[in-house]
Amino acid sequence: MSLRLPKTDLFIDGQWTPPSTGKSFDVVNPATEEVIAKVASAGAADVDRAVAAARKALEEGPWAKMAAKDRAKLIWKLGELLLKYNEGDVAVLETAHNGKPIFESQYVDIPHSAECLFYFAGWATKIHGETIPTAPDAFTYTLREPLGVVGAITPWNFPLMLGIWKVAPALAAGNTIVWKPASLTPLTALRFAEISQEAGLPPGVLNVLTGFGLEVGGAMVRHPGIDKIAFTGETKTGVQLMKDAADSLKRVTLELGGKSPNIVLADADLEAAVRGATNGIFYGKGEVCAAGSRLLVEEKIHDEFMAKLVDRVAKLVPADPMHPKTRLGALVSKKQMETVLSYVEAGKKEGAKLVAGGKRFDVGGKGYFVKPTVFDGVANDMRIAREEIFGPVLATIPFKDAEDAAAKANATVYGLAAAVWTKDVKKAHTIARRLKAGTVWVNAYNLYDNALPFGGYKQSGFGRECGASAIEHYTQLKSVWVSLT
Ligand code: NDP
């Protein structure tokens, strides 16, 4: 598998163009610590150019006049091309800048992104208003129209997929887009821009600006020409973003952080729950917003369950992300690795018991790898139980009964996801209702479908991605009153 780099200039109005700043920045492979690309660093003037191109494409030209069925075909084609290039280079690129196992890029993230395009291609022809009977001398109806120019700002953990979660519904609804990917992982967004050219997406419909959060993201959030910001990232960035968006009263949807509880009741299928607990935290190296980072285990089965878990975790060894058998890759950056290791120290200091991992690990003398880490005896008020670590660190919290589990699970500012493992249907549904989270899994973890809404309760954000509800966040309603008198 060889690395084929995409073009590294900015993609504006269907053209590859150098940044106004004249600057570029390095993209590093976190598994090898090598610089793999130098990418254009956009500035505020480039945001102006991209917004102007997106506005023009929205209001004149082929996209503005395109029939919904033709829009659908174009979005479908984007999905087909993405699948076509998945094995060739997109998956390799995703793994190279993020450090995630190629298995995840090739068989999960990129196919899921293509499925997202297929799913929303179907929506393009099904977005419509309603006729609403009001007065006998009137014909009254609604039109569901695009919001306008959408700014997408995305993080580094699922570099392509979280962009596509925004691009696909935005295009289905007829909007145009300016997308700023995370500065650590900009390569697959650029590759997708190339794919959009090949698919024949009209110029200006999708623009990709690589650069930094404050310069590019900040300029987008404050830009009067952008109608909506679709953001995924940290909760504290989301707070700032809402403030910055207020002056232009921009619509915002925020997909933010999490500290999701994974609850194992004593009557659960323990083998399945151990697999679910492991996958829940170590998939994506724990750099997953919905990661089951708090494992709540019923006291009665605690010792048996932990023995099985530690046994399974011991078999999970970080390895070269490009190897097809690897299941735990490198953390995205040195800084992220240091943050994760600092939480390990905090956990030890606060009195939690380290039962697995807790150390850096190198592969061939290189890379930002951390061994899968498990703490036991964690109290819900410790930092490792309250704060999002965003790495392969699991905090195990014992509980007495289902009531205690739900109370502990909800004792967090976050509310992105949760899971419960039990064979008792009544308990499963009762706890699922009590959990304050946007997604609740029962006897499963980390399952997603493009048809199912995904988003947060509480400080995990608002708005929903995927599913029919996403369409509402990319459209606005107009009421039309025709007098028949
Ligand atoms: P950040 O919030 O640091 O960054 C996200 C994006 O916002 C990046 O593109 C970043 O640019 C940009 N940005 C940073 N500051 C600003 C600003 N002031 N104005 C506008 N844009 C800005 O998140 P991370 O990249 O660290 O991603 C990890 C976070 O994402 C975790 O908290 C995780 O939980 C969350 N997440 C949430 C998901 C969900 O669906 N709820 C899914 C996946 C992740 P730059 O790259 O230059 O910093």
Please mark out the parts with pLDDT under 50 across 5 or more consecutive residues, or reply none. none
Shape verdict:
globular
Distance N to C terminus: 70 Å
Number of domains: 2
Average pLDDT, rounded to a whole number, is 98
By DSSP, the count of extended strands is 21
- Biggest sheet: strand arrangement: 13-16-17-12-11-18-19
CATH superfamily of the largest domain: Aldehyde Dehydrogenase, Chain A, domain 1
Range of strand content: 15-25%
CATH-defined fold name of the largest domain: Aldehyde Dehydrogenase, Chain A, domain 1
Query: What structural class results from the helix and strand content?
Result: alpha/beta
Percent of residues in helical segments? Answer: 25-40%
What would a concise description of this structure say?
With 485 residues, the protein is an alpha/beta fold. The protein has helices at 44-59, 62-65, 68-98, 102-123, 161-172, 187-199, 213-222, 235-246, 270-282, 302-314, 334-349, 383-386, 402-410, 425-434, 467-472; strands at 10-12, 15-17, 24-29, 34-40, 138-146, 149-153, 176-180, 206-208, 228-232, 251-255, 261-264, 294-298, 353-356, 360-363, 366-370, 373-376, 393-399, 417-421, 439-442, 461-462, 475-483. 39% of the residues lie in helices and 21% in strands.
Structure description:
By secondary structure, the protein is α/β, with parallel strands linked by helices. The chain has 2 domains: about 10-255 and about 460-480, Aldehyde Dehydrogenase, Chain A, domain 1, CATH 3.40.605; about 260-450, 3-Layer(aba) Sandwich (Aldehyde Dehydrogenase, Chain A, domain 2). The protein is built from 15 helices and 21 strands. It has helices spanning about 45-60, 60-65, 70-100, 100-125, 160-170, 185-200, 215-220, 235-245, 270-280, 300-315, 335-350, 385, 400-410, 425-435, 465-470, and strands at about 10, 15, 25-30, 35-40, 140-145, 150-155, 175-180, 205-210, 230, 250-255, 260-265, 295-300, 355, 360-365, 365-370, 375, 395-400, 415-420, 440, 460, 475-485. The strands form 6 sheets. A 7-stranded mixed beta sheet has the order 13-16-17-12-11-18-19, sandwiched between helices. A 6-stranded mixed beta sheet has the order 8-7-6-9-10-20, with helices on both faces. Strands 1-2 form a two-stranded antiparallel ribbon. The chain is globular, with a radius of gyration of 23 Å. The termini are far apart.
